[in-house]
Amino acid sequence: MGKLDGKVAIITGGASGIGKEMVDIFRNEGADVIAADLDEEGLKLVGQWTNVEGIRLDISSDADWQEAARKINDQYGRIDILINNAGITSEKSAEETTVEDWELMMRINSYGPFAGIKHIAPYMVEQGKGAIVNISSYTAQIGLGFNSYSASKGAVRTISKSASTTYGKQGIRVNAVFPGVIETPMTKKLKESGGMLEQLEQATPLGRLGRPEDVANAVLFLASDDADYITGAELVIDGGFSAQ
Ligand code: NAP
């Protein structure tokens, strides 16, 4: 028996990196998974996996969310799990960041998860049950990186807490995870630019960078009924980096 048997899960950013790993783990635990992303090539690949449907959805678009929520609910008859995972990063320093850069970061990384909850939670409320997990970042918990990315992930932290208190009585659990540096296409560029990742790895108490499955397995727990009394929680998955 799988931990997610009979459940319908939406995973944004499901065509790459951490999201793709979650799609694989969730389907193997018995869920019907909708991988929502902008990466057409990645969507084609995960869309070939059994129990996975790939859909194009821009998380910063209300219209996309509205249409996807209605279609998924019509097709599957329910929506049990939402994983707000899709996001972008930026290597720009504060000095290099323009208002347009800031607005783009906030629109995708902060409004995206907010809009996801806004459009999916009503279906969960009707069912009287649902689980939402938001992917923030360790940079939202410590003073590392005076930049738009850390700020956008700080908003995700607050969105999670406030949604957990807003929807708790309606049976919806909302939790957040805070990954450290995880080896994915997002961090590949950092690796190629040299130096920084090695320094972070050396500074990590567990002595290695994270892998997508480190995050995916923790999210699986929070999304499953094993975490039935857990809401508003913050789980750091960073090999101990921010504990220092
Ligand atoms: P990734 O490999 O770059 O995957 C992110 C996916 O999100 C990509 O397929 C990307 O598509 C998609 N995406 C971007 N903007 C979107 C939008 N507006 N609507 C829908 N999909 C969109 O990144 P990852 O490393 O797996 O990161 C997943 C999440 O974990 C992100 O929220 C990230 O901030 C967070 N996180 C990552 C790390 C890390 O070290 N990797 C650490 C802490 C937190 P395109 O490629 O087409 O843009």
TrEMBL record:
InterPro entries membership: NAD(P)-bd_dom_sf (IPR036291), Sc_DH/Rdtase_CS (IPR020904), SDR_fam (IPR002347)
Superkingdom of source: Bacteria
GO biological process, one term: bile acid metabolic process
A GO molecular-function annotation: oxidoreductase activity, acting on the CH-OH group of donors, NAD or NADP as acceptor
NCBIfam families to which the protein is assigned, alphabetical: PRK07231.1 (NF005559)
Annotated family: Belongs to the short-chain dehydrogenases/reductases (SDR) family.
Protein name, UniProt field: NAD(P)-dependent dehydrogenase, short-chain alcohol dehydrogenase family
Protein's organism: Salimicrobium flavidum
Taxonomic lineage from the root: Bacteria, Bacillati, Bacillota, Bacilli, Bacillales
